[in-house]
Design goal:
heterodimer, A: 115 residues, mainly beta, B: 113 residues, 51% strand
Chain lengths: 115, 113
């Protein structure tokens, strides 16, 4: 079975400071990992993904994420937060090694960037 | 491109009523899916389809039906609405290929009274 955990319901960060949104996962095979962002009254938008290769993945809007196999983590990061980054962030995993079609989402982390 | 289009945006139903949530995509994606989003629970998969004529159940399929007669359309039917189905529903599609990202519609907010 595949699962993903986002341990923080909310993260507050001052504008200009670095931000981290945490994600850990559990799979029986090898993971495909994704980050999505949701702005109010909108659907989710794809930010970045890890499939294989370099553990540091760069995505949209200056975001990046680091895959850590030993810690089964895929934390989302940005060097300098903007007020416009305030949104709901979802981590998701697919266990491709187990032949799963389904993407399992975390419960989401609300990011608030304070001016 | 319009991407993934969902209608209606909002709907209020009485318990026991039926309705269909519409979803259409213009990207020629084979894979389509329906999720529901509830506070504190993230997104949960209701049904999905890997191509026209093929559908399968997700994590929370009870009370919902789907069909896929064309590549473009993937309607979600509520047979007899219950208050527990009050939620925000998202349709999503992706290209063939397990590492392709999902493209989401803007959602339908459903309230069942």
């Amino acid at each position: 079975a595949q699962s993903v955990a986002q341990p923080e319901d909310q993260v507050n960060v001052a504008e200009g400071n670095p931000l981290t949104v945490k994600c850990t996962y559990s799979v029986s095979g090898n993971p495909y990992l994704f980050w999505y962002v949701q702005y109010p009254n909108r659907g989710l938008q794809f930010l970045l993904k890890y499939i294989t290769g370099d553990n540091l993945v760069k995505g949209s809007y200056g975001f990046e994420a680091e895959f850590n196999k030993s810690q089964t983590s895929f934390h989302l990061k940005k060097p300098s937060a903007l007020v416009s980054d305030s949104a709901l962030y979802f981590c998701a995993v697919r266990d491709y090694g187990a032949g799963s079609y389904q993407l399992t989402f975390g419960k989401g982390t609300k990011l608030s960037v304070i001016p | 491109n319009a991407g993934v289009t969902q209608t209606p945006k909002f709907q209020v139903l009485k318990t026991g009523q039926s309705m269909t949530l519409q979803c259409a995509q213009d990207m020629n994606h084979e894979y389509m899916s329906w999720y529901r989003q509830d506070p504190g629970m993230g997104l949960r998969l209701i049904h999905y389809s890997v191509g026209a004529g093929i559908t399968d159940q997700g994590e929370v399929p009870n009370g919902y039906n789907v069909s896929r007669s064309t590549t473009e359309d993937f309607p979600l039917r509520l047979l007899s609405a219950a208050p527990s189905q009050t939620s925000v529903y998202f349709c999503a599609s992706r290209e063939t290929g397990e590492n392709s990202p999902l493209h989401f519609g803007n959602g339908t907010r459903l309230t069942v009274t």
